Amino acid sequence: MPQNKKEGLFFTTIVCFSMVISMSAYNLLLHGQFSLSNLFGGLVPGFIVAFIFDVLVVSSPAKKIAFALPVNKEKNIQMIIAVSSCMVLGMVFFMSMYGVIMQFGFTENFLSYYIGSFTKNLIMALPLQLLIVGPICRMILKMSRQSSWLKETNN
């Protein structure tokens, strides 16, 4: 877990980027529209939207909810699972809405499209975050701590 603001920003950025590229590929595949040009064409706007939602909307309430859950806060793995799960729920809620709006706009079928999108995205995003992206990004964070650029200075 991040230990200072630089680490927090770095960790948020790599997790957000990893989830956006993975979930974008997944959704393009689901809709039969996968190509590298489609993937990379939507990557920057998707990342910007996801990063803003993550930092400004989802992170704080997700952490408050996770810390209020009846988990053993002394066990790091339980807190990682709780925080990650709450983050995924919040991000899937907003990013599914973003995806439906970008794909279909606000139509009379918006709610049915949204519910379908939310369900399919949650089924993919939760295990992706808990089993692949989260552990890899925590490993990258741990390795990056060995370099001096993430350490906070008092300058």
UniProtKB/TrEMBL annotation:
Keywords: Membrane, Transmembrane, Transmembrane helix
Highest taxon listed in the record's lineage: Bacteria
Pfam families (alphabetical): DUF2798 (PF11391)
InterPro entries given in the database record: DUF2798 (IPR021529)
Keyword Transmembrane helix: yes
Transmembrane segments: 9-30, 36-58, 79-101, 121-141
Keyword Transmembrane: yes
Protein name: DUF2798 domain-containing protein
Species of the source: Enterococcus silesiacus
Upper lineage: Bacteria, Bacillati, Bacillota, Bacilli, Lactobacillales
